[in-house]
Amino acid sequence: MSNDDTPQDESPRNESPRNESSENGTPGGETPQKGTPGNGSPEKAAPQDETPVNEEPQLTGRQRLAAGLWPPRVSRAQLIVAVLLFVLGLGLAIQVRSTSDNSALRGARQEDLVRILDELDDRTQRLEDEKTRLGTQRSELETSSDQAEEARKQTQEKERQLGILAGTVAAEGPGITLTIADGAGAVESDMLLDAIQELRAAGAEAIQINDVRVVADSYFSGGDGSIEIDGTKVTAPYVFKVIGKPEDLEPALNIPGGVVQTLEKEQATASVARSQKIVVDALRPAKRPDYAQSSSQ
């Protein structure tokens, strides 16, 4: 048979496949691996790394609170607000403290406040009068023809005044009588001492309680119905004989929170009576100094 009769191989020639994998993202000429997406094969997940991830340690509530508070995160606006609040609080504290000092007068009536102001004016007037009197004495000593005689008179007058203050001479004049009745025995020695201090501040010149003369160095002791003044026992009712200006002495005892109100809280009663003649005749013995003597001798 001729070569023309030789059956031709009708099978298609093996041609190198096109680089189709490039369309699927696989480099040309490389056979796509099994399990790679795009080759029609079922996808298989790559084995995951089963190494446990390091988790953050759990914090306690106290630790979270401390972490939230420190370090502090303060903005400029917060700082300004804090400064303003501090200044406001400081001002309020000063205001409360200044008003609490006069709490005893805050609840006083208008009449009581007027009386207190009048008492202060009277004290001021007494000091002015004393200043004027001393100035007059100095002028008399400077202008008197017989300065020795004038000095002697002023010395005698001063001696009489000091004798009244020391309790060595009797005295009389206008004043008040304060009577304290203590049926329950609740009056203490410090209450009587407070009354003495109020009277002296109001201008009392001579004071006598029952039969005891009260002077600058007098002391009070005891209590519960057994009170002693300078070692002498006094019992209720306690009668104060006070020489001074009645218009000053009585209001000093009746001020809000004063002696009368304090005694009433202790179930004691106090009554005040004015008089144009009060006699203070309880005397104290004059004490001669053991070592001191006049330098003129």
Give the SSE layout.
Elements: H1 61-69, H2 76-100, H3 103-106, H4 110-143, H5 147-166, E1 171-181, H6 189-201, E2 206-209, E3 212-214, E4 220-223, E5 226-229, E6 232-234, E7 238-243, H7 246-253, H8 259-265, E8 269-280
Antiparallel strand pairs: 1-7, 1-8, 2-3, 2-7, 4-5, 5-6
Summarize the structure.
By secondary structure, the protein is an alpha+beta fold.
Structural summary, described in words:
The termini are far apart. A 5-stranded antiparallel beta sheet has the order 3-2-7-1-8, covered by helices on one side. The protein has a 3-stranded antiparallel beta sheet with strand order 4-5-6, covered by helices on one side. The radius of gyration is 54 Å and the shape is elongated. Helices cover 40% and strands 16% of the residues. With 297 residues, the protein is an alpha+beta fold.
